[in-house]
Amino acid sequence: MRVYLDHNATTPLREEVLDSMTRVLRDVHGNPSSGHEEGRSARAAVDRARASVASLIGADADDVLFTAGATEANNTVLLGMACAHAGAVRHIVTSAAEHPSIEAPLERLEGEGWRVTRVGVDSEGLLDEEQFERAIESDTALVSILWANNETGVLQPIERIAALARAKGIPFHTDATQAIGKAPVDLREVPVDFLSLSAHKFNGPKGVGCLIVRGDTAFEPILHGGPQERGRRGGTENVAACVGLGTACELAERELPGRMRGSAELRDRLWEGIESKIPDVRRNGSTDRVLSNTLNVEFEGAAGELLLQALDVEGIAVSSGAACHSGSVEPSKALIAMGCSPESARGSIRFSVGYGNDAAQLDHLLRLLPDLVERARQAVGA
Ligand SMILES: Cc1ncc(COP(=O)(O)O)c(C=O)c1O
Fold first, then answer.
1. What is the pTM of this model?
2. How far is the centre of ligand 1, averaged over its atoms, from the C-alpha of 34 (Å)?
3. Is there a contact between 163 and 169 (Cβ–Cβ < 8 Å)?
4. From the alpha carbon of 324, which atom of ligand 1 is closest?
5. Which residues pair with 117 in a beta bridge?
6. Is 279 exposed, middle or buried (0-12, 13-18, 19+ CB in 10 A)?
7. How far apart are CA 235 and CA 249, in angstroms?
8. Per-residue pLDDT tens over the stretch 35-85
9. Is the pLDDT of residue 115 over 90?
10. Which of 158, 173, 198, 210, when mutated, tests ligand 1's pocket best, judged by the most ligand atoms within 8 Å of its CB?
């Protein structure tokens, strides 16, 4: 039996999503930009999907710009906003615990002379709000803060910091990739100007996502070509992928409260089991401002990479740090930002539950885990 507990890395496709995509791949072959019936029918499918995305997050359908995932959305907002400043280098405020798809374009901008302030997080992973307020300067062009951390699941106080940026007249971007489909995100209540999301993190297909661009907030496209996406992203839309994303949004909108309850139950069962069966364990990150599906645990003195491999051999998929880093033993950046030592970070494992998990699977893991942790601890001592 395989037990998949790595839903923050990616999620299985829901049957309903597959069905909607299959129908489009089979029956809708027109180009959404064409004026004939085939084109109009493809356009209608993309626009229905756009409406479903907008409805899930309380946005306007016109603000939804389809991309090839959150990495493209994050690059678009950072590099596109920088281009909109027509060569004048300025300042950006972000946090010390962002995803590489934010950090890498920021490093590129720093290479071009932009200044970047990375606001720290406390030992629970929560943004230092006082430092955030002080970080905003007269030439700050953009604020970009992760909504939910991919490694710890910690939820930032987005409502408050977005309101603060708005009060100072600074465009606010949030990478909400991990929050969508797992936590309430309602843009009628949070004054964000840009938001990134990705379908494969909530049971949609890989390689599609969006950037929400509210109103006429300034940015330059980074993909130049045809007039698609109202001139903001050239290239023929991936119609089936957009439809898959739309279906995933419809499911998330219907199921969110149940999903949150179910995953919190599983996550708590797992933590209670770990705590009662294994000595010297510690939960990383806030325990109340956290995604209901994510549990990040330090097994003190254990080699996390070895534990991950041993679990994999036993049929259990988990992660130690961001998926994009797997294969390397770099300690998790989010945990280091919270003040963990590199050894503690290396001894930490992320369990993220989701569709298809049940209590029996977690009980199976809990039967295996004590011995495997013991072996991963002995490996460090050896
Ligand atoms: C917080 C966050 N942002 C961005 C991404 C990148 O998303 P995508 O795989 O759609 O490019 C991920 C995925 O790992 C993520 O967790």
1. 0.96
2. 32
3. no
4. 14
5. 93
6. exposed
7. 23
8. 999 999 999 999 999 999 999 999 999 999 999 999 999 999 999 988 888
9. yes
10. 198
